[in-house]
Automatic annotation (TrEMBL):
Belongs to the TRAFAC class TrmE-Era-EngA-EngB-Septin-like GTPase superfamily. Septin GTPase family. It comes from the Eukaryota. One of its GO terms (molecular function) is GTP binding. Transmembrane segments: none annotated. Residues 403-412 have a biased composition (Polar residues). This is Septin. Residues 40-306 form the Septin-type G domain.
Length: 421
């Protein structure tokens, strides 16, 4: 890496403003960008978190004016599962690859303490996949299907009593990982006066518990006014429907009750239009950007720091990835060398111990052998002595035997002579 000249002035102060004397053409850059983006198509990933049967699928159908053909989830699952489905949608010449990720079985367990875990794991897994692709030598991010969640619609049960603890715990766990938009589901079940109180209560509870929800950006002046107005309407109270009713001479999405009709797209009936405006028409790009620049960046930072990487060295001086890698490599090699030396030393000690053990055993064997030899010699000596004694006895016996036989023959002779007399 070339050394950085710390004394040279910042690049900005060296830049001069020049006036062009004619048309050059780079004013077409925004058009080039639009054309390229339209050609590539867009990706948007929505996560719907909410208890079973809260109207998640119906709202998705209503938002994108289509039928995603989702089937109802069972209420009996032992754990929460995440199910993602991807669809290709097209409006005029703009293609949108939309992924809807549903929490199946959310809030159905008796112990709801860990309900958020599956959601957190899913979001992290998508970040991890992207990070792994980014870290590859041969990356193909241009063709990579980005599955990172851009927005999480959190469906609040229309109880009118505020948030449940599962809502607070889950949103708190997610607020640094994803853009959360809380919405009151099935808002047609709450009266107008109750709804305002309910909304204020929810916002107060979120604030008191330090839950950071997604705020529509107010820094872009083209949308700052509408966004700031919309921020004051959060959480949006929404109604969804798959049924159409004729209002005037137009078929509109609505829910029909014996006492009247709730029109999904009627702003005096519910906040559906506000949600659609904010989610799809005004801030989709901001959510995609925040996901990449804020939430993913945070995940990436944590992961790289966990691996031991940092932008500054031990003395808080700027350092490069390569330098850290080199340091880590040399530290690792050093550690390896140290381990090898330790193992070698241990091996030598063990060999010496074994050698001493063997020598002791050999000495013991020698001792045993000498004793055996000595015992053997003594035994042999004893046997030799016994043998010699026995031989002497045999000789003596033979001598006596011979003597006896001589004596007995002499006797016989003497007896014979005396008879003749
Ligand atoms: N009152 C009222 N009912 C609704 C609303 N939206 C959906 N429903 C009804 O609620 C029931 C469940 O709707 P779904 O959209 O399947 O709910 P879900 O959250 O996707 O359910 P699961 O996927 O099974 O968890 C259906 O009978 C819908 O007609 C709404 O805004 N208000
Ligand atoms: Mg559903």
């Amino acid at each position: 890496m070339p050394p950085v000249d710390v004394d040279s002035p910042p690049v900005e102060s060296q830049i001069r403003n020049l006036i062009l004397s004619g048309h050059v053409g780079f004013d077409s850059l925004p058009d080039q960008l639009v054309s390229k983006s339209v050609q590539n198509g867009f990706v948007f990933n929505i996560m719907c978190i909410g208890e079973t049967g809260l109207g998640k699928s119906t709202l998705m159908d209503s938002l994108f004016n289509t039928n995603f053909e989702s089937s109802p989830s069972p209420h009996t699952l032992p754990t929460v599962k995440l199910k993602a489905h991807t669809y290709e949608l097209q409006e005029s010449n703009v293609r949108l690859k939309l992924t809807i990720c549903d929490t199946v079985g959310y809030g159905d367990q008796i112990n709801k303490e860990d309900s958020f875990k599956a959601v957190v794991d899913y979001i992290d897994a998508q970040f991890e996949n992207y990070l792994q692709e980014e870290l590859k030598i041969k990356r193909s991010l241009a063709y990579y299907h980005d599955s990172r969640i851009h927005v999480c619609l959190y469906f609040i049960c229309p109880t009118g009593h505020g948030l449940k603890s599962i809502d607070l715990v889950c949103m708190k766990k997610l607020d640094q990982k994803v853009n959360i938009i809380p919405i009151i589901a099935k808002a047609d079940t709450i009266s107008k006066t109750e709804l305002q109180k309910f909304k204020s209560k929810i916002m107060a509870e979120l604030k008191n518990n330090g839950v950071q929800i997604y705020e529509f950006p107010e820094d872009d002046e083209t949308v700052s006014e509408i966004n700031s107005t919309m921020n004051s309407h959060i959480p949006f109270a929404v109604v969804g429907s798959t049924d159409f009713v004729k209002v005037g001479n137009k078929m509109t999405r609505a829910r029909q009750y014996p006492w009247g009709t709730v029109q999904v797209e009627n702003e005096s009936h519910c906040d559906f239009v506000k949600l659609r405006e904010m989610l799809i028409r005004t801030n989709m790009e901001d959510m995609r950007e925040k996901t990449h620049c804020k939430h993913y960046e945070l995940y990436r930072k944590k992961q790289l720091e966990q691996m031991g990487f940092s932008d500054v060295d031990a003395d808080n001086k700027p350092t490069s990835f390569q330098q850290i890698f080199e340091t880590k490599r040399s530290n690792h090699l050093q550690e390896l060398q140290q381990k090898e030396d330790e193992m070698r030393q241990m091996f030598v000690v063990r060999v010496k111990e074994k050698e001493a053990e063997l020598k002791d055993a050999e000495k013991e064997l020698h001792g045993k052998f000498d004793k055996l030899k000595k015992d053997h010699t003594e035994e042999k000596k004893k046997i030799d002595e016994s043998r010699k004694k026995l031989e002497d006895e045999i000789v003596e016996f033979n001598r006596r035997k011979a003597q006896y036989s001589q004596m007995s023959s002499h006797h016989t002779l003497t007896l014979g002579k005396s008879k003749k007399k």
